[in-house]
TrEMBL record:
Protein name: Branched-chain amino acid ABC transporter permease
Subcellular locations according to the entry: Cell membrane
Keyword Calcium: no
UniProt keyword list: Amino-acid transport, Cell inner membrane, Cell membrane, Membrane, Transmembrane, Transmembrane helix, Transport
Membrane topology: Multi-pass membrane protein
Family classification: Belongs to the binding-protein-dependent transport system permease family. LivHM subfamily.
Origin: domain of life: Bacteria
């Protein structure tokens, strides 16, 4: 029972990171119909800012703020420079653009920083553990869970109470009508990218705090998992992105912990098989977007 509870905590921490990343993807997709595969590079940018801040001896709290701010700024610049010129093009063009931006940034990281993994200096307390109800839990796991809860509460408030959040919800529902009501396209799309950058920055801090390193391809795997989580939850659905992220985290951790040793090498295919099974039962995702009309035929 103790092992099960321990792994459940690990699953919540990992699932929270996936949920934040999936939310960033879902917010942009709900407004623009774009899956931004360069979202992972926002994580990498935040990771490198953490690394350089650590080398400069800055306080960790200030390093976190600078890393998240850099991810938000990079997301807004990414939209202005790369995606705004092709906004009226086909979805395929925007998708190819996102891949191009991702690869260009990866090459820049490799050529101007390093192609190898770089250590990140972290405070000692993140390596400590504490005992809660008989469970030994790492401080970094607790921090990840708390940060995820805070961000989800903030996002819920932002989307329901703040004018830019309300504008994004309106644009996601019907962009053409929202523009007729006076909502500026550039403003709402820039706000969506800034919010996705915020979520990517927080996810990067959580990811780096558990691995203490950063490399040019750091964001690829977690964003690929976040994309799977977004589809699992219901592409374009914010609540679905959260549900899909947590479910994927639980699938990964439980398989790693409880799958027999002789099947561990098949862990990833089994995990994807479970995802496919869920989608066979719920083809539109766990919590489909309101405007999704796809049907299983």
């Amino acid at each position: 029972m103790e092992l099960f509870l321990q792994q459940t905590v690990n699953a919540i921490a990992l699932g929270g990171t996936y949920a934040l990343l999936a939310l960033g993807l879902a917010i942009v997709f709900s407004i623009m119909g774009l899956i931004n595969f360069a979202h992972g590079e926002l994580m990498t940018i935040a990771g490198y800012i953490l690394m350089y801040c650590g080398l400069a001896g800055l306080p960790f709290s200030l390093s976190i703020a600078l890393a998240i701010g850099a991810a938000m700024l990079a997301a807004v610049l990414m939209e202005m420079i790369a995606f705004r010129p092709v906004r009226k093009a086909s979805g395929e063009t925007m998708l190819v653009t996102s891949f191009a931006v991702s690869m260009v940034l990866q090459v820049l990281f490799q050529n101007f920083i390093s192609a190898r993994s770089q250590p990140v200096l972290l405070p000692q307390f993140l390596s400590d553990s504490t005992r809660i109800f008989g469970l030994v839990i790492g401080v970094n796991k607790i921090s990840a869970i708390v940060a995820t809860v805070v961000m989800l509460v903030f996002l819920d408030w932002f989307m329901k109470r703040q004018k830019h959040g309300i504008a994004m919800r309106a644009a996601a529902e019907d962009f053409a009508v929202a523009r007729l009501m006076g909502i500026r396209a550039n403003t709402v799309i820039s706000a969506a990218f800034a919010l996705s950058g915020l979520l990517a920055g927080v996810a990067a801090v959580l990811w780096v705090s558990q691995r203490a390193s950063v490399d040019p391809l750091m964001g690829f795997t977690p964003v690929l998992k976040a994309f799977i989580a977004a589809i699992l939850g219901g592409l374009g659905s914010l609540r679905g992105a959260v549900a899909g992220g947590f479910l994927l985290g639980f699938i990964e951790i439980y398989l790693a912990a409880f799958l027999p040793a002789e099947f561990q090498e098949f862990r990833d295919p089994i995990g994807l098989g479970i995802v496919v099974l869920v989608l066979l039962i719920r083809p539109n995702g766990l919590i489909p977007a309101a405007g999704l009309k796809a049907e299983k035929v």
